[in-house]
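Researcher: I'd like a candidate sequence for this fold, 173 residues long. If you have to choose between options at a position, lean toward the conservative one.
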């Protein structure tokens, strides 16, 4: 073999080693890129899972709130009747122990409903709001101001679940 052949052989070997190193570096870079791609995909999947869990909890809360509101709506007429009977207790029964017990039960019921988030609306002196009030009668008084409450309205967690039936001013004196 000649020097030229030896030299060509060394050049070919060097070229082959360089090609191998380049391929190895490229493969290493490809692995890094794949790792980065999979890491990003995992991060997105984790974020999606967290969002799903949050939405699921919000939906559960909404469902519970809706179910409670429906139950409480069904009980409000009974409470209204109980409220009216307590307000119209005859004078001769005010000292009666049994009647006093019924009034205490009424007061406990009011407190319990308030703890659950049910509140009776304050209406007299307020401006008529069709989302919270139903005007049944108009009479002398400031226009669109509630002058008398005919039937109580209720809110549950600051949302009207039963509108108040009211008398409003018609703008006349």
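Model: Candidate sequence:
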């Amino acid at each position: 073999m000649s020097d030229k052949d030896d030299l060509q052989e060394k050049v070919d070997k060097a070229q082959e080693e360089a090609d191998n190193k380049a391929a190895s570096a490229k493969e290493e870079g490809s692995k890094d890129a794949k790792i980065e791609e999979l890491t990003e995909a995992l991060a997105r999947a984790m974020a999606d899972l967290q969002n799903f869990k949050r939405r699921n909890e919000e939906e559960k809360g909404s469902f519970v709130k809706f179910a409670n509101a429906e139950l409480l709506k069904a009980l409000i007429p009974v409470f209204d009747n109980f409220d009216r009977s307590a307000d119209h207790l005859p004078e001769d029964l005010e000292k009666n122990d049994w009647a006093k017990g019924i009034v205490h039960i009424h007061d406990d019921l009011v407190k319990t409903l308030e703890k659950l988030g049910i509140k009776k609306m304050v209406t007299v002196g307020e401006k008529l709001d069709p989302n919270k009030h139903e005007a049944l009668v108009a009479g002398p008084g400031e226009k669109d101001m509630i002058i008398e409450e005919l039937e109580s309205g209720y809110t549950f967690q600051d949302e009207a679940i039963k509108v108040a039936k009211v008398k409003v001013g018609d703008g006349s004196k």
